[in-house]
Amino acid sequence: MVNSSKDDAATDGDMSSGDSPPSNSSLYSEGEKVLAYHGPRIYEAKVQRVELRKKEWRYFLHYLGWNKNWDEWVSVDRLMKCTDENRLKQRALEKGYVEKSSKSGRSAQAKPKNSIDARVEKEDHKNNAPKGKKRKNDSGTKDNQSVEKVIKIQIPSTLRKQLVDDWEFVTQQDKLVKLPRSPTVDDILTKYLEYRSKRDGTITDSLGEVLKGIRCYFDKALPVLLLYNKEREQYHEFVVENVSPSTIYGAEHLLRLFVKLPELLAYVNIEDETQTRLHQKLLDFLKFLQKNQSTFFVSAYEGCKGTEGKGKAKND
After folding, report:
1. Residue 224's Cα: distance from chain center in Å?
2. SS3 at position 125
């Protein structure tokens, strides 16, 4: 999704570690400048309205320097105070994001995403001009039409925090996920299929195709889009000839795929009705990941030299 350009570059950050406020007291007030969390990034914003809804404080934000079309209601777990300490976290995350973006040939600047976008990163940002601005090359219309068809995936807040923690472990603490993982991506997809079969009493062909698609996208995207630089040596150690990444890696890297999926699917010719069904299936799968978060995701990473074992060959 493309919208108006930002006047001042936004920076990244970490999630607020503060506890939720009691029902009779709001942590933030109208007119207060805050740092607002979007996916693994943080943007400067201003609280315009505060409301108590069903015993939970909600905040209507305007992102400073951005078009008001990005204004949205958020919960307290998306916010943190504008303190020097939090700005240091913000700059640290920005540095890591810029390095990762420059390595893959992307523009380092990103737009804040609304609550249903979560985090739609542009792998070819330079080829997608903001609305209201003319493109200089003739392919602009086609590119913009593709962007308009981005499937918007809302990543649950607990999984968004998982992404931030994952980034910090790898890029800031020089730690890696121990490989091979258990359960693997293949295991998780199989468990989801079993879960749906038990819940629905049947499995549709379309669901099977979606899960095959997720596996295929994961295997192809992992070495290109889903690894931090510090993980590449480990990748080459475990993913040798005839080994599928989906038999080695687990939920941590699978979740990263869902950040990239909207952009990857934007250039696939999908009918509107099919796209709606696909969107529902992807959201249901994310809820399944969230429900099993404590089981599927590791609670601690290990030092870069602490990997053990080798991957198993792909049985095709």
Report:
1. 16
2. helix
